[in-house]
Amino acid sequence: QVQLVESGGGLVQPGGSLRLSCAASGIVFSSNTMGWYRQAPGKERELVASITSGGSTSYSDSVKGRFTISRDFAKNTVDLQMNSLKPEDTAVYYCNARRTIGSRTYEYWGQGTQVTVSS
Prior knowledge:
Largest sheet: 7 strands, mixed
Distance between the termini: 40 Å
Number of strands: 11
């Protein structure tokens, strides 16, 4: 029922740009906080950016000013525009959806898409 499908990953040179997209289905998209996480080899999965149902955004310090998260309520998609990419941004990027209703929290994950920043 619930699906989060990421796309847009690939190989890019340092200083370049990529745009990731996450297509959501099976959820009340407008009621979910959406997030992008990433995980590099040997590292913990970390939150990169998030956007609430009201449009409030937050970013990790390492990407602030370079990445922009946005959502399209009509298309049920969440994008991550990544500019000025650095080798340290290399990771698998995951889309996340989360909603809390009373005492219940519902959370879903995409399969991930590889981003490699290298010359």
